[in-house]
Amino acid sequence: MSEEASQPSTRAQSGGEKKDSKKRTHEKNEKREDEIPIAKRRKHGKDSEEEFPMNVPFKIVDGVRHLSPYWAVYRSHAKGRWIGRKMVDVFSQEFLSTNKNYAKVACKLGRIFVNGVQTVDCDYVMTSRDYIEHYAHRHEHPVRDMPIKVISESDDLLVVDKPPSLPVHACGQYAIHTVLGQLRVNEGRTGLRVLHRLDRTTSGILMFAKNYETDLEFKSTLKQGDWTKEYVCRVEGAFPEEELTCDEPIAPLVLSMGIQCVRKDGKSAHSSFKRLWTDGNESVVLVKITTGRTHQIRVHSQFLGYPIVGDKIYNSTVWGETKGKSAAYGKPFDELCQDVQAAHKSQNWHEKVDPEYEARMEKMASEKLEPEPKNLPKENRPDYDPICLNCNVISKSVPPGHYQLFLHCLRYETEKWSYKTELPDWAVQPSEKVPLVC
């Protein structure tokens, strides 16, 4: 079945909360906010007030939401690792889902602006004060058409049950198909501040502050380690009855992709695992963490020898014969980095590139091009972009594992507050008629 629409349908469900309260944005300390530089405001994790695409057509097929392509502006301040490098080299090496010649061609066409100036110099070297804008044809990845359920709401705080498949905020090929994006286009909510993050494929408790003071208050308690954080995951193998702990340090392996690994020079991390039930082949485990490292539970469960079922990144023999158990990778970190990166480039699973496109990009990268007008409106740009990779691929069916990881944020609490969800269906023991109580 397919549904056509021009307004999004993935919507927040408040369970009777007052409509006026749902649409409120932060009003406190407005003057102080205006005085904070843009770069610093973004570091606080505030939902950007910049131009946002609305009313983009979409269709729903078999419960999956497919958004029509649209023109967008990608914006970023120069990251530390970019400084002193050619801009086109940064693009080519950091953004792996693009054609190797895309950055050079886009630069020649005048689609990249540095500090507000159209930049067509492919030899431009980035500095610490650079602010980059990139005009591109955006194809957002499909997501499951699931509601964002509101668990609790006040004048200061919004707590939701995040569905799997949605990133929290704009990143890569996601903007409208994000939690913040859906709350904006469906509920008119802007100015929300992300208090913590969940991976795109992870579901569960997600909290937003509505004003500056609440943002600082909650993040200070989080930094002090005052939060109790409980997750539930489904892992391979029969997990033992006794509680297992993992204190292995975690460090980046593939920085541009956010992939982590256990490494002696990493940051400290602590996780405790307690089995809820097992069928002998798989187990559902309750996990409590006192730190919040990127992919911490996924990395620690891999280290213990019980990787999360279907985890496309960490449940793979690319990490060694035992899938990274006890960090026995069997290869140097540099080699492991290359192997893991190669295994998880986006084109490996859903894109077959038109050979004519590859030849066209090679030719355009080596010849002189006429830059596009500096102020070319988005509405005057074509529906098909000849240099857009996604306009020139044959897409395959997206595998189910792309949408969901068997990892769910079950409970966050301190001495002052507590928020929790029910167990997801996949975590409920088959013999049980009602969810387990933790």
TrEMBL record:
Pfam families: PseudoU_synth_2
Span list, region Disordered: 1-49
Coiled-coil ranges (or none): none
Basic and acidic residues composition bias: residue spans: 27-38
Any GO MF annotation of the entry: pseudouridine synthase activity
Record's compositionally biased regions (Polar residues): 1-13
Active site: D199
Keyword RNA-binding assigned: yes
Region forming the signal peptide: none
Reaction catalyzed: a uridine in RNA = a pseudouridine in RNA
Keywords: Isomerase, RNA-binding
Entry function: Responsible for synthesis of pseudouridine from uracil.
Family under the similarity heading: Belongs to the pseudouridine synthase RluA family.
Protein name: Pseudouridine synthase
Organism expressing this protein natively: Caenorhabditis auriculariae
